[in-house]
Amino acid sequence: MSKPVLVIGAGPVGLTMAAELARYGTSVRIIDRLPTRTTESRALAIWPRTLELLDAAGCADAFMATGLRANAVSIHAGNRVIARIPFGAIASPFSYLLMIPQSETERLLEEHLKTSGHTVERETELTDFVDRDDGVSCTLMHAGGRIETLEAAWLVGCDGAHSFVRGRLGLAFEGDTLPMGFVIADVHVTGLAIPPDEPAIFWHPDGAVMFFPIARGHYRIIADLGPVPLHMPDLGEMQAIVDRRGPGGVILSDPVWLSDFGVNERKVRDYRRGRVFLAGDAAHIHSPAGGQGMNMGMQDAFNLAWKLALVERQEAGPCLLNSYSIERSGVALQILSDSSRMTRIVLLGSHLAQRVRNFIVKQGFRIPLMRRAIASRLSGILIDYPDSPLNMGSARGLHGPGPGQRLIARQGSGQGNMPRFILAARDSAEARAIMARHASLLTPEMCLPPDENGIWLVRPDGYVAAVAKSKNWTVIDMALNRMAPKHRC
What we know:
Blueprint lengths: L4 E4 L3 H12 L4 E5 L12 E2 L1 H10 L2 H7 L1 E3 L1 E6 L2 E7 L10 E3 L2 H13 L6 E2 L2 E8 L2 E7 L5 E6 L1 E4 L6 H6 L4 E17 L9 E5 L2 E9 L2 E7 L10 H11 L5 E17 L4 E2 L2 E3 L5 E2 L7 H20 L9 H25 L4 H14 L3 H12 L12 E2 L28 E3 L4 H9 L16 E5 L5 E6 L3 H9 L8
Helix pairs in contact: 1-4, 1-7, 7-8
């Protein structure tokens, strides 16, 4: 029996990782030291790019049936609307933001995992591991103190910001803690005169207060504390903040969750050491501005899972795994920069700077191109891998995405129970020859290319691996040959 991939942590990232590996027929176990999944709402936002990947995995419908679709986000100062960013123009089948509590995200992912016959092994903790050339020897402690030694093929640490796996590897979590704190409340809200499915940010000289809809009349409220030290708020304090910074007439009641949090901006340099990987908050944490954290982590899992599956199936060589850290680390750097910039813009302290900010935002967001650009950036559809070692060729002179950029192929290259590349090209004898030569890596059917004068090789996660002009099949052949099990790194 083959050694399993061991996934540590059953949050959204670990569950995504395990479910994807299971979908591809890879032996996998997922453990979590907690007895039950979270009941707290925590991360709320699922952006279009993540929904596209969930759709390819076959479970987006359950998310859409459960979550609340937000069609825009608005920025206010008192009763004045400074800017409104609609999501309807996002170039995705999912042109909206899905608001759904993390507790529900975990429930849906766990149910999806069960369809492949796998369950989370709870009250089970990784206490030690040794990375070897042929696997990872892991020591697990089960409920009641039973010790198990497991020989895993690979170890994936999805165990959060305080990751045991990262600590055991000795990887530095480089970055800063921002000198500011926040309070958070999930409460019932009445009197808020904005569309009930629209997140709203209210700017005030004292700071910001933000409303994120969870369900009808139920909101997540976040506010910065300014110079006040971190502390657990009560409903009265949250009401006072909303009264001062909000539009007026808003009443809070029935709190479900009250908490505080600080903001860290940190990441590891390398997401892999030997046969051990990090994903999600174990590899990167940042400001919640933009709602990108959980999406980034789940996309880490989607990126790594198809690569591990191909290597475990011996349909690709281990060199393929070298691309994971390069690709996802580059994305984390960009998101860290974006979220940090958004946080600092929201929390400007000087009243003059705030007035200038409000004026620039109001004028800038009157331009449709600006609104579309911001919506697209938030949505995740602009995430790409320009420095990926898997990239080959160029789209110069062609109408379509270049290597490392996203391309949603007609039939969805990630769908099904095998991770397969898809060829987007006109039918020809050369195309059929490539299909036959690389049958273990390619889907059996081609799809139409974005430009009939070009050829696109699309990865299982929907990103372009190679582009070539028509008849230049050498580029495509070379790109596929580099995946071969015997290819040398």
